[in-house]
Design goal:
By secondary structure, this protein is mainly α. The chain is about 65% helix and about 5% strand. It has 33 helices and 7 strands.
Length: about 850
């Protein structure tokens, strides 16, 4: 192909040679200008570059499912913007006390945080919470409250240690007077002993009334949501709110209540994702540069020559970064990887020029005239690979494609001027050091070809099992705190974050649709504003509550204790001696020690016994005084705003029966909901639609890149056989990549779908050079070209592979799949292409011999 290509593109070769010779005549000026361009590019990028972690924005807003999502967000703009704070404490008393402190700290920071809401301590649910319990659960709770009436009335009248111990003594003498009977009495004795022993040991362990006579076995989880005020002047708009929330958590002191706190929600995960991606790209870039430097040194054994090749990478990245910062408001989580990709690709043009320019007797003008045409073809094919997604709705990948294409064009042009200028300024000694391609014996070549065919057959069998991962959460760092906390939301059916949303014009339409949706086996429940109220059963439940409250509430207002509270310590000790109970001997021993301890210890015990009593008493009074007939207007505003828009439209939240992290369960849920409500939206509904769009875009981009590169080669070659001999190894590499994705369990996702188009665009470079420098008889290329192909392939593979070091699974999968793809391409070019070129040469020879 060298002859025909040189003749057909000789005009372009002469033009490129003239440009290179001009740069070589003024080397210092050329290098200074290149340095200034680099500095200016980085300065522009530093001032303007932004990053957007919203994966949904990577698809065209004109798509039907994006239109549904945008309509939902227009009605409920804060639907997915909340921080979700998970609080886990040993018991409900500690959890609610910490929650109250945290709520107060958040309210002190209105500049960055607003609308905090926690149902557990919200006044509406404190008053009306019992109305939401199932009848059996409510009956059991009211029975426990009734049987605890003597203790409750005693402490309400006389909140002292003696009164508490005297009431407990009554329970020891008659367990039926304790709510929950013998089992609850045992728990009360054990909890009381723990509090007393802690005080005797100089420690604090407040008694939890929620554990004493309730059903609270702990640990208890509470959920608080809060809206961030976004600051769009920041690189991460939610960062000030995230910092404010962190400060509020520290000020609320979770350790005081042995509480464990985790923050999740979309803004928290996005913030961590941004840090994860940025740090991962930084590490990958550092490793990529180090690997590239090492490979260049091994290839050339000359510092100056290696620096010349590295300078092309710097120039390409600076211009690409400046273009990105000026052309786009913000980079997405995929396009931020352009720096690593260009580090791998950017040096390839320089490597080929330098490898040939160092041959004995080589003149830079002649080298550029001969190599310029294939390098131009490589730049065009790589650009095609980057731009293959431009016609598709996957606009996020189009962004990376445009940036990458600009970087490739810059690297190509910079190689034509910087390399000649650098060699003119400090000529490098001749030599072809560095890694040498193996001159394999025929038997080894046949073995490699046989293994390649076996791998192709295996990949053909595995390819249909390649899958696409549609869940963006699955691509985030699994160890990041927000992602771990997000996973914990799935542990409880009432907090599972994946649900569908449907808009209804009015409450009547909403309830009619909710009834149809709730009949689906895949749906656990449907939430509407009307269903936030207790419903028709509330009237009967209110009567049951009133019956208990009628006798108990007056006793909770104080007065004369129903039991003798004098000498409570002695009463309980005597009762435990005469009435054996489980846990009694241990408590008796602790009380004997307390009786012998200084009075100050008893004061500590009294404080710890009664720490949670005021809050318990207030909560009990509120729960026994439900609102007569609650309406939507009585609901907490932050809660109602999630389901009722200002214009009156209603949002139905369709909660799944199963865990939708399971792709099969997710598919069933989406299909079932769509059958009833075709306009259903929400993140989980978008997963399947977005996945299908991106999957189609990947196939379209791959075919477009293959067709465009094929037409480009055919136009230059004007030989169908030689074009096919160049393209077929790339098709084989695509098949090997599909098989590799299955074998190594690297599913395709929105981050790594560029692998196949990139494989065609960048991977075809080796095939172009192999064909360009091969003889008319299909013989292999000369030594410098073979060495350059190997070095360029190694630098690209090392650079792209460094992305696997990222903690962000999406970015890491991009590196892993590109590593598989480019390894397959190099193998195909070195093993599969030579026999195809020889076959093409024979076919061409036969064609020419025909009369």
């Amino acid at each position: 192909m060298a002859g025909p290509l040189h003749l057909r593109l000789d005009a372009a070769g002469r033009l490129m040679a003239a440009l290179s010779e001009r740069a070589a005549r003024r080397p210092r000026l050329t290098l200074v200008l290149a340095a200034l361009v680099s500095l200016a590019g980085f300065a522009i990028a530093a001032a303007n570059l932004r990053i957007d972690t919203d994966a949904t924005g990577m698809l065209s807003p004109e798509l039907p499912h994006r239109q549904r999502e945008l309509a939902l967000l227009a009605a409920f703009p804060r639907l997915n913007t909340r921080f979700v704070v998970l609080i886990e404490a040993p018991d409900a008393d500690r959890a609610d006390r910490f929650l109250t402190r945290l709520m107060a700290e958040i309210e002190r920071r209105p500049r960055h945080l607003e609308e905090p809401f926690a149902a557990a301590i919200d006044p509406f649910f404190e008053r009306n919470g019992l109305l939401y319990e199932e009848d059996a659960e409510l009956d059991a709770r009211l029975a426990r409250i009734t049987r605890a009436a003597p203790l409750l009335a005693t402490l309400a009248a006389e909140p002292t240690l003696s009164a508490y111990l005297a009431s407990l003594a009554e329970g020891v003498r008659d367990a039926d007077r304790i709510a929950g009977g013998e089992e609850a009495l045992t728990r009360a004795l054990v909890e009381t002993r723990a509090t007393v022993e802690a005080a005797l040991a100089g420690e604090r362990r407040p008694l939890a009334f929620s554990r004493l006579f309730g059903s609270d076995e702990g640990p208890v989880t509470r959920v608080l949501t809060v809206e961030p005020r976004l600051d769009f002047t920041q690189l991460s708009p939610a960062r000030p709110a995230r910092d404010a929330l962190a400060q509020a958590l520290v000020a609320a002191d979770p350790h005081a209540d042995d509480a464990r706190v985790a923050v999740t929600g979309d803004p928290a995960m996005r913030g961590e994702e941004l840090s994860s991606v940025a740090e991962g790209i930084g590490v990958s870039l550092a490793v990529s540069v180090a690997a590239l430097s090492a490979l260049l040194w091994m290839a050339f054994r000359n510092l100056w020559v290696s620096l010349l090749a590295m300078s092309i990478v710097v120039i390409a990245n600076s211009v690409a970064a400046a273009f990105a910062s000026l052309a786009f408001p913000a980079l997405n989580l995929v396009s931020i990887a352009f720096a690593v990709l260009l580090t791998g690709i950017g040096a390839d043009f320089a490597v080929h020029l330098l490898m040939h320019a160092r041959e004995p007797g080589a003149a830079i003008g002649a080298v550029v005239r001969r190599l310029g045409p294939p390098l131009l073809l490589c730049a065009l094919s790589t650009g095609i690979g980057f731009l293959a997604f431009a016609p598709t709705p996957f606009s996020g990948m189009t962004q990376l494609g445009l940036i990458g294409a600009v970087g490739v064009a810059t690297a190509f042009l910079a190689s034509l001027v910087v390399v000649p200028a650098g060699l003119a300024l400090a000529p490098a000694p001749a030599g072809g050091g560095g890694p040498q391609p193996l001159a394999a014996a025929p038997a080894i070549r046949r073995l490699a070809l046989a293994l390649g065919l076996v791998a192709l057959a295996a990949s053909l069998a595995l390819a249909p099992r390649a899958r696409f991962e549609t869940d963006p959460v699955a691509l985030r760092d699994p160890g990041s705190p927000a992602v771990v906390a997000f996973g914990r939301l799935f542990d409880r059916p009432e907090t599972r974050p994946y649900s569908a949303s449907v808009l209804a014009a009015d409450p009547a339409a909403a309830e009619a649709l909710a009834a149809r949706l709730e009949a689906l086996p895949e749906v656990a429940r449907v939430v509407t504003p009307a269903r936030l109220l207790a419903g028709e059963a509330a009237a009967e439940r209110r009567e049951a509550i009133d019956a208990v409250a009628f006798g108990l509430l007056p006793q909770l207002e104080g007065g004369t204790p129903p039991v003798d509270t004098a000498n409570g310590l002695d009463q309980l000790r005597a009762a435990l001696r005469t009435h054996p109970r489980a846990g009694g001997p241990e408590l008796l021993a602790a009380l004997d020690r307390l009786a012998a301890a200084p009075p100050a210890v008893a004061a500590v015990v009294e404080r710890d016994i009664l720490t949670f009593w005021p809050a318990t008493l207030a909560r009990l009074k509120a729960s026994l005084s439900p609102d007569p007939e609650p309406t939507l207007a009585d609901l907490p505003a932050p809660l109602l705003a999630r389901y009722q828009a200002p214009d009156g439209r209603i949002r139905l939240e369709v909660v799944p029966e199963d865990d939708l992290r399971d792709p099969a369960a997710r598919a069933r849920f989406i299909a079932a909901v769509r059958a009833v409500a075709p306009d259903a939206a929400g993140p989980v509904m978008n997963l399947a639609d977005s996945g299908a769009v991106i999957e189609r875009a990947m196939i379209a981009a791959t075919l477009a890149a293959l067709a465009a590169c094929g037409l480009l080669l055919l136009a230059v070659e004007r030989s169908l056989w030689r074009t096919l001999a160049t393209l077929l190894p790339i098709v084989a590499a695509c098949l090997l990549t599909l098989g590799g994705s299955v074998l190594f369990q690297i599913p395709f996702n929105y981050a790594n779908v560029i692998a196949l188009p990139m494989l065609i665009g960048a991977g075809i470079d080796s095939a172009i050079h192999m064909a360009a420098q091969a003889g008319e008889d299909g013989a292999g290329p000369p030594g410098p070209t073979a060495r350059a192909i190997l070095v360029a392939a190694l630098t690209t593979i090392a650079s792209f592979g460094s992305l696997v070091l990222s903690d962000h699974r999406g970015v890491a999968s991009m590196g892993a799949l590109l590593l598989v793809a480019l390894s397959a391409t190099t193998f195909a070019a070195l093993v599969l292409e030579p026999p195809l070129l020889r076959l093409a040469a024979r076919l061409e020879a036969r064609r020419r011999q025909r009369p």
